[in-house]
Amino acid sequence: MDFMVFQYPMISVQACLDGILLGILFALIAYGMALQWGVMNIINIAQGDLVILGGYIAYFMYLYGIHPAWGVIVAPIIMYFVGVGLYKLVINKVVDRDLFISILATFGISILFMQLMNFAFGADVVLANSGYGTTFLFDSAVVLPNSKIFSAFISILFAICLVIYMKKSKLGRAIRATAQNARAAKILGVDTEKVYAATFGINAALCGVAGALISITFTIHPYMGLPYTIRSFMIVIVAGLGNLPGVALSGMGLGVFEEFADYILGTEFRIGAVFLLLVLILVYRRFKLSRKREYLK
Amino acid sequence: MNKNLILYAAILFFGITAPFIFPAFKVQLSILCILIVLALTWNIQGGEMGYNTFGNILFYGLGMYLCASVQVGMFFPLAEWTESGGEKTFVHTPAQFFQGMAVGLVVAAVIPTIVAGLIGYAILGLRGHYFAICTLGLGVAAGEISGGIEIIGAGQGFTTPPFPDVGGLESRGEFFYFLSFGVLVLTFIAVRAIYSTRFKLILNAIRDNEDKAEAMGIQTMKYKIIGWMISAFFCGLAGGIMGGLVGYIDSTDVAFDGREMGVFMVLMAILGGKGTLWGPVIGATVFHIFKEGFWTFFLGWQYVALGVLIVVIVIYFPEGIMGWLREKFPERFGETIDEKDRKAQVELK
User: Fold this and answer.
1) For B72-94, what is each residue's pLDDT tens digit?
2) Is A105 near chain B, with CB under 8 Å?
3) Structural domains in chain A?
4) How would you label B81-96 residue by residue, b for 16+ Cβ within 10 Å and e otherwise?
5) What is the pLDDT of residue B232?
6) Which of B96, B107, B106 is CA-nearest to residue B72?
7) Which residues, listed in sequence order, are joined to residue A137 by a DSSP beta bridge?
């Protein structure tokens, strides 16, 4: 336990800013999860592993001498096809079934991805150095790496693009129609199979962007996927499906919580704190709803 | 009934003589017993009650840590033991070892049961996938947190007391085999007894439609918690034995190993057939044989195989072996089918 945070207010400012920048990134991943959950009614445990895979794409570009920031454009393109391929192979068989089937099947995919990435890229913790330098605020009491600011900016850009795409384009309309009522959409001539594939692809592409940004700002490791899944799940259940401002806000809240947990409890308990927070949120909502004799649906 | 009695006697006979018939596989057989126990107890939640949990690993790991800590802590200072990292500065005498193990197993069974009651009250009100993800989170959180606690070894692990020098060379394997086989028999009898009472019907009612079950006047919460406590009791016992068997406890790789044991128990029960008495037993046996073969011959690729296996079983084989048998030979399961229906079915095919 370390209460430096409360004695030196500047550390709190630092933690808040770090947390908000981190949380924007989480919100991007959570937006992908909310999209596929709402449209296809599946929970994808492999979400975090898609993120890490996107990160490795950026990392490899860095290794071959290309600036990793270009990964933000390359990773989503590759990840889109990975997502569509995954959909054609596995996900299309679990869409209409029990949610637990999708959880377990994607858990299998997650284990598979972890190990394949471990073979392909090795078990080292790596990061792609962007060389962006740092910004000093408040008499250099607060230090912000420019890469974090860059990643938050890119995340917001992608989120805005996606929202506009969902509103304006034909595919976006089809996706929203399928989310509302898949059967009615089918009757009215929407090819739901194609919509599902595209949704999963878009989700994977978002994960790719987030992964590329994470490889620049933080570190990546083949086994680090599950925490990202849990974070995005948590953000989605706090915000609710289809509530974009809520996703952004709860993402930032989670980021700030994590930074403070990191300072107060110590880095070794950071992931544990995230998972415990998930449990606490679920328990809180369960008790709140059970007073009205309802349950989380 | 008579046929069943012969079957049980044959299995019991095989179970008792197995370590002498296959002396080289004693450790594998003990692990098989533990796996069957875990699959059987998972089936109480996942199969009968319809609450698919990833969280039973919590009680398994808790039992493992508790049993080892009690066994050490009864005679020596625990902190110094873990700090020495298993170097033999303290040695248990045989009497101390067995005494510690006995007390440790009792603690390893009782405390997880209490924990299950408390946690169950909080989270068993969640349903479906929320419950599944919540228990997944619990399991991982337990692993991460126990990996940060110094007194039980933190990140570097916890060495359980080595088996004392009694009997011959084979005594360690035999001791752990009979211990785990005993727990298996105990679990099987308990589960079988539960499945022949009204309790099972209540669990099935909760699985089929919880709201209606509640409307019929069943206090579903009470029965859900009791069901989970029964699972936790046997999971804790299994974990305690497994800790002694492996000889080394690591927070995320041995005790709270959601990626291996936590998934295995789900997979075994589904492979054998959820919601049946014999399904988990058959599933665990088949899975263990497959796993050992694969783990030995394709070292390094085991997780790839595991991932593919999960996807294939879940998508193409969700009813499991028992479900398949039931479809193939319905008469054996006490279902009668009219000759007319059968003919109609054949024609349809």
Assistant:
1) 888 777 777 776 665 666 777 77
2) yes
3) 4-290 (1.10.3470)
4) bbeeebeeeeebeeeb
5) 92
6) B96
7) A142
Tens of pLDDT along A161-210? 988 998 899 999 999 888 888 889 889 888 888 899 999 999 999 999 99
Partners of B147 on chain A (C-beta within 8 Å) are 268, 272
- How many whole angstroms separate alpha carbon A133 and alpha carbon A144? 9
For B158, phi then psi, to 5°, come to -135, 120
- This prediction has a pTM of 0.86
pLDDT per residue as tens digits for the range B110-126? 999 999 999 998 888 88
- Mean pLDDT of all residues in A115-127: 83
Closest residue in chain B to residue A281, using alpha carbons only? B134
How far apart are the CA of B183 and the nearest CA of chain A, in angstroms? 29
CB spacing of A279 vs B129 below 8 angstroms: no
Helix or strand (DSSP H, E) at B317: none
Of B53, B268, B291, B311, which to mutate for an interface test with A (greatest number of A Cβ within 10 Å)?
B311
Residue with tokens 């995340």: A155
Alpha helices in chain A (DSSP H): 4-7, 9-40, 47-63, 71-89, 99-121, 146-168, 170-180, 182-187, 192-217, 225-239, 244-265, 270-290
**What's the token pair of residue B323?**
């479900």
Q: Which of A110, A115, A275 sits opposite B144 (nearest CB)?
A: A275
User: Are A283 and B140 within 8 A, CB to CB?
Assistant: no
ipTM of the complex: 0.84
Q: Quote the percentage of chain B above a pLDDT of 90.
A: 16
Cβ neighbour number for residue A190 with a 10 Å cutoff: 19
Residue ranges per structural domain of chain B:
28-258
d(CA A254, CA A108): 27
A269:B145 CB<8 A: yes
Distance CA B28, CA A49 (A): 32
Name the token pair of A88. Answer: 């054609």
Q: What is the pLDDT of residue B112?
A: 93
How many residue pairs bridge chain A and chain B with CB atoms within 8 Å of each other?
Answer: 125
- Coil/strand/helix, residue A47: helix
